[in-house]
Design brief:
single chain, 79 residues
């Protein structure tokens, strides 16, 4: 659905459609492969950092703080 709505505006009616569509397809695949690889590498590094005992403690504190702030915001909200 995305390609049907978004890609046609980048295809010139004066040039060969199959060549342009193939080039756009390969470009899209290259960008997706690059970003997915970056996300996987970042997640791999983050998992090593988050396995430390200190990180677990700070994660619990941060999530608890978010819940407290959300509760206070809900209590202070006016109808």
């Amino acid at each position: 659905m995305f390609f049907v709505a978004f890609v046609p505006q980048f295809i010139s009616p004066h040039l060969s459609y199959p060549i342009q569509a193939t080039l756009l397809g390969f470009t899209f695949c290259a960008v997706v492969a690059t970003t997915d690889t970056a996300y996987a590498l970042a997640a791999s590094r983050a998992s090593g950092l988050l396995r430390r005992p200190g990180a677990s403690l700070w994660s619990k504190r941060a999530s608890g703080g978010v819940l407290v702030v959300a509760g206070l915001a809900t209590a202070a909200a006016k109808r």
